[in-house]
């Protein structure tokens, strides 16, 4: 059947190509007057060309279509023929620019014809509109907007040449025919001169970045499809991620006419010839003009640089409700067509999601000044958008209401509420809250998404906590009588309720306060999520949510756990675990998956909360233990049995890894054994995702005190990590290398806290793991950054006895050589600063210096020469400040003066030079690390000062004199900034200088000592 359809399409395409070729030759001859032609024949030929289906590739000869375009353009420029003929010619041009397939770009030889077409389209759109009520004229406007859209899709570079003109056209025609909105002539819009933070234009090296404690969960293949160039949108860095991918913010839903091939046109015969019929026909065409302009707007925003587009915001987004009517807000509030309102909202959605970086500058200010900062202007725009979106929440069309809530969610993500006027967030929550009880599932889901964005907003505001802790109000009755919700089929016949009013946006908050005291003692949003998930409440609410509502409710619980665990999750764990238990046992696989992820998030939040000893005293840990005991009884364990679904098994491993030490120690012995057994069995799973998740969870468990002291568990974990580190798949090796870093860290803790347990770990195992780490440094950067961390930890474990065995000295030298190479080469900054930190760990082991001892005196040979040289060079001038910070930290690692040897003076010189260079910033992004760099250099210099000996003073005199003033200034500032607990090295430096003063020093020695004391002996 599919083959038959394909064959028919190919045949149709071939026939259309031949017809197009013949008609093209005919129209060219007619325009060139090589045959006897007349207006009727030209119109007939143009009509025949328009009737072809351009959705399939029918243009096989680029030269021929170029001729057609040029001749039609000449014909139009000479204004030959009637309006009807002009319309047919323009429709033919628009058809020639139609894409045959999505995302297709025109060949370079078609750029000139496309420019000719766009010039004609723009000329008709920008000329004086003599009669805005003429039907043919409005059809011409619609055709030109569609044609411009096609040109931009095929030839985006053209847009930058005429951006201001195109935006001026859009601003005029997106409002054409709306009641009480005056027509304005299209004018070229000019960008406003704004203070926009620019992204670096140079290619930036990989920096690695800090790993978030909450992992990114796996995304299925279907979720990855259909997104607008994710790299161009600032979505969710740390923000709320919706569970329901069909409501993806960056979808093109709501944009009609884009890439639609042969458009379905409403025939003029669909309307009667009476006066009312003609008026309806005219309004219908004007609606299409507005929609075409809005679709063109969407394409323009999508194909324009974010920073460039933001300079035109003031032309489309008002500062207040007195800013005039010619803006995007008027479109989505007053356009009588619901489809147009939804398209306008989709444009706003794209504008918001691409402008988060710039909107972060916004702030509110009540001060009256002669000059208004642009940040305040932005704040007014954002406030006005909040007000405008609160109005459209009275919309009766479900698709438009859904789109409005998505816009609200994007606005919440983009708004810096801590810089805005107080109570703005409270009003947002009050506006969205009623839609949790809407009868339509899509509205409920988007309302949940918007509230999820509220939960993810940073920083957390007291008013947000206050609003979230309120009990369920009577607002849920708002939609009880609304049984006339409308679907997409009815969308064009609707208009926004003419009697709309502010959605409580400016009303006093006491209006809701009276209702917020009713109901049970469960906060309203948590209660709604639990009801959606099927948990029965005291009021016997039994209405379970639809599948998408359940998924989003689970996502809300995850978001709550991140920042509101103590307030919202902890007091109601018994009800939450009931909901999660039901969801994990549900037959719907996606629900199981999201429930597992929610368990993981809550587990991480619980573990973090319990790690605070003060909190641990305040709360009974029993309810937290019962949470895990309930899940481990059946529902969570059952996920491991899903052989056909590896993602569920991987998420189950993640859940076990998030239990945390406090809970794990309180679990019954059989549950502890169950967790460990399940994880070890999964390390041999055939699926990579499961294998990686299991070994990662084991590496977390090995840090628990009871398991860290269990030598058998530690050795089994080490073997599992060693085995998976050799896996063929990068994702598994990446998890294994991270696990090896964790395991080595646990071994370091054992060597200091539980020496008996550590002594049972054989030197052969240490050597085996060290060699594995060295081998891993030749792997991918993601593996390398973890392996260097492991090397640093394992080198701390090397004992004097180990160094007597032949393999160890050579392996240690290789390990140091690898660390030096990794910190001095490569483009991944995370690898570099991890390598520096690893050197710091290794250099704390006094046993490694004993290899350099000759007759009891330390000499600079073996690993010390390359290590100190590399660190000195990095700390002085490397462009990445985090690398320099860790290099400075490593230079303070040796515990005694002898360990520095002759490098003591070069380290002094390097750190002083680095302090002087700390003000030289190549990349402005490094500025935020400058204070930390200065602090660490000063602390490292303080450490070196504590090791000063009498013989060192004279050799340091010239170096110190060169940098004395600069050092004194920075030491003073650091002492003022740092709390006493963090400035102990500087305090110790003062004490060491006082002790040195008591020694028998010569005159020059005392002179240099006075210089030191002037620098360090400040107010402490």
Please tell me about this protein's structure.
Pfam families: DUF4042. With 1020 residues, the protein is an all-alpha fold. Among the domains are: 1-161, Alpha Horseshoe (Leucine-rich Repeat Variant); 239-248 and 279-518, no CATH class. The protein contains 49 helices and 2 strands. Strand 1 (853-854) and strand 2 form a beta hairpin.
Average predicted confidence as pLDDT: 81
User: How many alpha or pi helices?
Assistant: 49
Number of strands: 2
Largest sheet: 2 strands, antiparallel
Q: What is the C-alpha radius of gyration, as a whole number of Å?
A: 35 Å
How much of the sequence is in beta strands? under 5%
**What is the helix content?**
55-70%
Terminus-to-terminus distance: 86 Å
Strand order of the largest sheet: 1-2
The computed structural class is mainly alpha
Low-confidence stretches: 1-14, 199-237, 246-267, 477-506, 508-519, 856-860
Shape: globular
């Amino acid at each position: 059947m599919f083959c038959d359809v394909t064959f028919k399409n190919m045949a149709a395409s071939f026939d259309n190509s031949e017809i197009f070729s013949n008609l093209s030759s005919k129209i060219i001859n007619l325009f060139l007057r090589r045959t006897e032609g007349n207006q009727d024949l030209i119109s007939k030929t143009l009509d025949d060309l328009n009737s072809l289906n351009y959705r399939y590739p029918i243009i096989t000869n680029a030269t021929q279509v170029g001729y057609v375009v040029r001749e039609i353009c000449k014909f139009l420029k000479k204004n030959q023929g009637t309006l009807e003929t002009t319309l047919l010619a323009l429709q033919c041009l628009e058809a020639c620019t139609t894409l045959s397939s999505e995302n297709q770009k025109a060949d370079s030889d078609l750029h000139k014809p496309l420019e000719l077409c766009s010039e004609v389209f723009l000329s008709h759109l920008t000329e004086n509109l003599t009669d805005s009520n003429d039907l043919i004229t409005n059809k011409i406007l619609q055709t030109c907007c569609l044609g411009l859209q096609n040109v931009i899709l095929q030839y985006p570079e053209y847009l930058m040449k005429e951006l201001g003109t195109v935006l001026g056209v859009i601003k005029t025609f997106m409002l054409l025919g709306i009641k009480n909105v005056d027509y304005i002539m299209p004018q070229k819009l000019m960008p406003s001169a704004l203070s926009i933070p620019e992204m670096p234009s140079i290619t930036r090296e990989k920096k690695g970045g800090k790993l978030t404690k909450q992992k990114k969960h796996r995304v299925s293949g279907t979720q990855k499809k259909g997104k607008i160039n994710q790299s161009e949108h600032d979505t969710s860095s740390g923000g709320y991620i919706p569970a329901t991918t069909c409501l993806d913010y960056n979808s093109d839903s709501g944009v009609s006419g884009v890439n639609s091939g042969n458009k379905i046109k409403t025939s003029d015969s669909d309307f009667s010839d009476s006066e009312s019929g003609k008026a309806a026909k005219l309004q219908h065409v004007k609606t299409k003009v507005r929609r075409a302009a809005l679709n063109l707007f969407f394409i323009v925003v999508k194909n324009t640089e974010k920073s460039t587009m933001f300079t035109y915001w003031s032309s489309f987004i008002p500062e207040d409700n007195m800013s005039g009517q010619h803006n995007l807000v008027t479109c989505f509030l007053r356009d009588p067509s619901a489809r147009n309102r939804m398209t306008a909202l989709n444009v706003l959605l794209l504008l918001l999601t691409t402008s988060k970086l710039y909107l972060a500058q916004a702030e509110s200010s009540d001060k009256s000044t002669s000059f208004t900062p642009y940040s305040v202007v932005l704040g007014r725009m954002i406030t006005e958008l909040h007000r405008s979106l609160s109005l459209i929440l009275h919309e009766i069309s479900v698709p438009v209401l859904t789109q409005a809530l998505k816009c609200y969610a994007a606005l919440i993500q983009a708004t810096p509420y801590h810089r805005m006027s107080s109570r703005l967030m409270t009003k947002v929550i009050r506006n969205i809250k009623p839609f949790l009880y809407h009868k339509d599932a899509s509205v409920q889901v988007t309302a949940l998404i918007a509230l999820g964005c509220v939960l993810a907003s940073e920083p957390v505001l007291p008013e947000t906590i206050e609003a979230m802790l309120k009990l369920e109000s009577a607002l849920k009755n708002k939609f009880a009588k609304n049984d006339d919700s409308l679907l997409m089929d009815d969308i064009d016949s609707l208009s926004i309720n003419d009697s709309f009013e502010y959605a409580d946006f400016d009303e006093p908050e006491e209006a809701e306060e009276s209702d917020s005291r009713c109901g049970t003692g469960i906060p309203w949003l948590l209660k709604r999520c639990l009801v959606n998930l099927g948990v029965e409440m005291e009021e016997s609410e039994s209405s379970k949510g639809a599948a998408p509502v359940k998924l989003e409710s689970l996502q809300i619980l995850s978001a709550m756990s991140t920042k509101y665990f103590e307030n919202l999750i902890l007091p109601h764990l018994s009800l939450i675990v009931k909901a999660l238990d039901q969801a994990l046992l549900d037959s719907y696989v996606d629900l199981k998956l999201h429930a597992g992820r929610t368990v993981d998030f809550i587990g991480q939040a619980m573990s973090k909360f319990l790690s605070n000893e003060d909190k641990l005293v305040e709360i009974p840990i029993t309810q937290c233990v019962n949470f895990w005991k309930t899940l481990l009884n059946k529902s969570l364990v059952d996920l491991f049995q899903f052989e056909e679904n590896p993602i569920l098994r991987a998420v189950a491993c993640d859940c076990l890894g998030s239990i945390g030490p406090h809970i794990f120690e309180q679990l019954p012995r059989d549950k502890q054994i169950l967790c460990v057994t399940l994880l070890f069995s999964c390390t041999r799973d055939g699926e990579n995702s499961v294998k990686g998740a299991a070994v990662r969870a084991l590496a977390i468990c090995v840090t628990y005190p009871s398991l860290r002291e269990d030598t058998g568990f530690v050795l089994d974990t080490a073997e599992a990590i060693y085995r998976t580190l050799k896996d063929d798949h990068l994702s598994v090796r990446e998890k294994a290398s991270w696990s090896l870093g964790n395991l080595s860290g646990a071994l370091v803790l054992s060597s200091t806290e539980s020496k008996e347990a550590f002594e049972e770990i054989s030197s052969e195992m240490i050597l085996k793991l060290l060699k594995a780490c060295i081998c891993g440094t030749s792997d991918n950067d993601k593996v390398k950054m973890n392996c260097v961390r492991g090397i640093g930890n394992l080198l701390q474990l090397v004992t004097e006895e180990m160094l007597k065995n032949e393999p160890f000295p050579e392996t240690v030298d290789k390990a140091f050589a690898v660390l030096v190479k990794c910190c001095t080469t490569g483009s991944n900054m995370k690898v570099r600063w991890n390598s520096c930190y690893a050197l710091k760990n290794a250099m704390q082991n006094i046993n490694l210096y004993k290899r350099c001892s000759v007759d009891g005196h330390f000499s600079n040979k073996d690993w010390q020469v390359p290590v100190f040289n590399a660190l000195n060079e990095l700390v002085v001038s490397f462009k990445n400040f985090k690398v320099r910070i860790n290099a400075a930290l490593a230079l303070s690692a040796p515990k005694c003066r002898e360990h520095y040897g002759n490098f003591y003076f070069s380290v002094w010189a390097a750190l002083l030079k680095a302090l002087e260079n700390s003000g030289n910033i190549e990349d402005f992004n490094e500025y935020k690390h400058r204070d930390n760099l200065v602090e660490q250099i000063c602390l490292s210099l303080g450490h070196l000062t504590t090791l000063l000996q009498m013989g060192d003073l004279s050799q340091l005199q010239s170096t110190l004199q060169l940098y004395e003033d600069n050092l004194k200034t920075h030491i003073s500032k650091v002492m003022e900034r740092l709390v006493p607990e963090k400035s102990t090295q500087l305090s110790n430096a003062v004490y060491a200088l006082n002790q040195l003063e008591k020694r028998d020093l010569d005159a020059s020695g005392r002179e240099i000592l006075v210089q030191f004391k002037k620098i360090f002996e400040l107010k402490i």
